Records
---
Amino acid sequence: MDEFSVSSREEDGQEFLKCARSEKLPTSDHLRRSVLSGSISELSQIVHNLGIKDKKVLLDHLAKVADQDNDKFLSKIKSRLDRVGMELPTIEIRYEHLNVEAEATVGSKSLPTFTNFTLGIFMGRMTLLLGPPSSGKTTLLLALAGRLDPNLKVSGRVTYNGHDMHEFIPQKTSAYVSQHDVHMGELTVRETLAFAARVQGVGSLQDMLEELSRREEAASIIPDPDIDDFMKASATEGLASIVVTDYVLKILGLEGCADTLVGNEMIRGISGGQKKRVTTGEILVGPVRAMFMDEISTGLDSSTTFQIVNSLKHQNHILNRTTIISLLQPAPETYDLFDDIILLSDGQIAYQGPCENVLEFFEHMGFKCPDRKGVADYLQEVTSKKDQKQYWARRDHAYRFITTKEFAEAFKSFHIGRKIGDELSIPYDRSKSHPTALATKKYGIGNKELLKANFAREFLLMKRNSFVYIFKLTQILIMALLTMTVFFRTRMHRNTIQDGWIFMGALFFTLITIMFKGMSEIPMTIAKLPVFYKQRNMFFYPPWIYSIPPWILKIPITFLEVGIWVSLTYYDVGFDPNFGRLIRFYVLLVAINQMASALFRFIAATGRNMIVANTFGSFVLLSIFALGGFILSPDYIKKWWKWAYWVSPMMYGQNAIVINEFLAHSWSHVTSLLLLQ
């Protein structure tokens, strides 16, 4: 049976919607009503409370077999919009005389490299970016996405719907999918995509659905309940695991490993090809209208690449998205899915236009593709100095090597090149740009929701790394037991200056023990930095929101660690028995531990890799210890190093716990100890 035919469920849904409209429910109530019938769910329920089984039933109705039903599903969404005369936002991307220049130092000379992209225009089509390695594919994609390194010299112009890059937020309007797969290894595939969907928000889907509902009500149109359910669920902001995540898992073929850890060098997880699909899925769950995808086929077999590109093609053609995909050696069946092609070589565009005209252009230049030769392979070889000669077809003319620059110049006079030039000569009419096509907000959801999402992810990561915290608690327990035997109270007296120095040693040992508990922050922070930089550059969240959850959530662990240390060592060593001073001692150690954790996180963020962080961290720690006032007395620190004594956080922590101890009543009879203050 066709899953998209009108069923009894659809008829029941239509009756429900008719009743709802007859009661004149507000539009916001319509958007939170779902039609799910059968043994699993009642007729109507709140979309916010959709369970796992309900979502599975809904997705099975929409696209039970992803390869076969996805096209029908997207067509139904488009048909629903067309019936009421609504248009989806589209983006036309133009670049004119785009030139990117960088300087690479080789030996004692500077080698200037130029990447010259002359003219181009894209809108609502899927374009293949083809070229050999180091031809400039990544540079072009980054330039179009507005994410080039600011140190590069860029000239020319890139516009979205006639708007320059500074007039909107390109990072939220378009998405650059890197060829590097960077993910949190401790999260599952589903959790990774759900987090990406949550922080990117729903864009303008909520507003679009409200307008759609109003127009359908005015025209007395009853929507397909399955499509209505999906659109309502995907437009409901704040869901931890929204339906669109499960939909993307299905179309990318990740359902079988959805609850498997992504994995990393230390954790066994999914395969490299599956990680590549997760990287693509992080973007598909968001509301962007333009995608620039860099070498997404790395690690994938040809059939999987075909499946992913085919899904993207359906979304482009039906939902009017703009996508440029860079592939190194696409299979013939994958190549046939694309509408347009950009052929890059030596940093210049040899051809840009419809795929069906590319062979015509090179035949015009004197080169012919053999019948059994793949078009993609032929195009990469015909611009190569080593392979070009074999395709020369003009036997009555002597062959000579034709450079990419000559191809680029000839393309301008080719009818496709002239057509592109004519289109670019007419400025884009800004009045035709959909109000929601270009993003003007930096982040997809509010700061409060971003904090909630980051707190939830950080708590989950802490649970997955629970062994680290259990080991730290065990470690401090063992160290406390050793301290109890070394500084035993029966041998700790308060009669002479020498007794005071022994207590100073015990306090100093306590200080460095608590401080070094924060060293585990270095490897844990460095491991997450690549994901942070990627998501920060994609405007998933601001840096300050990312940094707050690790600090807040680890405070209870600090309380527990310091509590174990103080409860075992304070009275056993023989510190002042006053309860108030014990509480102050405990609070001071908590503050010292928090200071140390922040310091080590700063070292990790500054170093960015373990070698640099350990080298830089060792220098910082030695400086702090040497100039903290215990190992080297302040009186012996040279004047030009005095500033280091005052900026050393260890000095303040040490002085605080020393004052807390030696100003106690139990030391009042030793007047000579006042010299230590």
---
Amino acid sequence: MSSYVGVHVSDQWLQSQFTQVELRSLKSKFTSVKNQNGKVTVEDLPPFMVKLKAFNSMFNEEEIRGILSESFPDVSNEIDFEGFLRAYLNLQGQATARSGEAKHASSFLKAMTTTLLHTINESEKASYVVHINSYLGDDPFLKHFLPLDPASNDLFNLVRDGVLLCKLINVAVPGTIDERAINTKRVLNPWERNENHTLCLNSAKAIGCTVVNIGTQDLVEGRPHLVLGLISQIIKIQLLADLSLKKTPQLVELVDDNNDIEELMGLAPEKILLKWMNFHLKKAGYEKPVANFSSDLKDGKAYAYLLNVLAPEFCNPATLDAKDSKERAKLVLDHAERMDCKRYLKPEDIVDGSPNLNLAFVAQIFHQRSGLSTDSKKYSFAEMMKDDVQTSREERCFRLWINSLGIATYVNNVFEDVRNGWLLLEVLDKISPGSVNWKQASKPPIKMPFRKVENCNQVIKIGRQLKFSLVNVGGNDIVQGNKKLILAFLWQLMRYNMLQLLKNLRSHSQGKEITDADILKWTNRKVRSTGRTSQIDNFKDKSLSTGIFFLELLSAVEPRVVNWNLVTKGETDDEKRLNATYIISVARKLGCSIFLLPEDIIEVNQKMILTLAASIMYWSLQKAMEEGESSPSPSNGTCATTPDASPAPSISGEDDVSSLGGEVSNLNIDDAASDTTVSSLIESEEAPGGE
């Protein structure tokens, strides 16, 4: 497998302020400017910094020039990479101060885990350890290492081999990872460890996690703030899994009419949880609406009312009479314990207003006793609103793909979230930079319907410019929520991005357009090159349902990754499913960021099969390019470390302040956008060779 190259900075403090993903990306961009101009001067930095888009458009060139002049009076002076990093940190700090927002505000999804602040919440860490002990204590492999001591840092040592995180993902969404693909040995070599972390990161994206600037090396090092940020998202996804009409139709009781049901379907799970909580608080006579999981819960009164209405048999009258908030919080937790609720927090956490732990606690109360009864009429209406299986699968795929791009908006329900046009404009701007005229776009919340139509009309206009098939399609079709047309448009977006990424590997395509036929030809040629005879006629070929062809393709691009002792003949439905789940996990283990399900392989879903083939092709070509690169010299500031597979890309998060802009070296491949296909970063300092 290809070697892993880390970026070394002589000043250890400076190095600690960035993840390896950030350093590689910044180093690549810095080297690109240096190669163009022969050197980098202070004068080169302002336009360069603006192009990075790392400061949320907070500074223009003149403002950056003014800030830099305080540290670098002579703009003609040459600046080295470490000087550039210091200037970058200075600007980032000033951007944060100007915004007046805490860049490290914590939320489970879109968790802002960066390296400029290394403090971790000990209560959250202890709570996550208790959760892990509870759910993984009986795991055949992990039981030798569990339980962990919540007060220690053993968690950060145990995650270093990747097994724990992979297993935790399967607890959150069972079946996500085929555990046969996890490398489980007491002592793993660097390749095996890196494969586990790559599998973990790609699988985390496939269940809806958003990870900010985190790569496999960060997990190998067990960086506490990054590890906790990832674990918190995985646990949240587990706890909120049932907070949707599809999983819990009884939630229709929270709304009054059919229009409200549609609105409910578009809400984020945590918003539904708040709605559920307020529904019961209103019945209990609590006057103040709860708008968050922090300050509104600090005094414990809302909890007291909620538990009294849900479980009156365990009610303690002293709870509401308590004068001290901490004492009331303790009585609340005692009440919850009598209901058999898991205790995700301590009284101090309620009083301090810990949003993550409060959310986890409320979710646990919901699971234990939702207090919902079903109105038969509403229930039947909710059942009627459910999509067919294929539509649901496609919606899931596109939702996860969009969330992997790192745009500002997090998608909860594709069909609802695209209707104002803004989300689609964000996606278009990500995969085709500069295509959106933001001056003509309206940002949510949008009250005037015609503004939504204007946004969607621009979406359709750009789609036509990109040569999408949009015959008789108008912006109003999106506003009206036409599911068939929305899915068709999203597929064309995803396919366009996928093909552009392959095209951008210029050493392979010389900038020519890549077609489905090119991908088909490559897959057949790759399998044939190993001496195997399997070939497919197209991506609808029924023989693909056995899984054998894709396992042979994966083995062709990386011989050691497929354990043929685990492969079945694919003759029965059960054998096909075993192979399909193994294919997906092996591909993610390599570095492919894919969002299809085993059913898509078994049923030979042409679209999803194409994305899988393209993803493997992209990974293989990038690997060939990496192996064709000349070894970096020490003067370039890089040093070879343990040989690992290509690290997973960063996944941009909610705040562009922490984003590095996403362009990888001179290939113009967007980091976050490349999540569509393959989790690999190329920081080429020379024109790389082809396959």
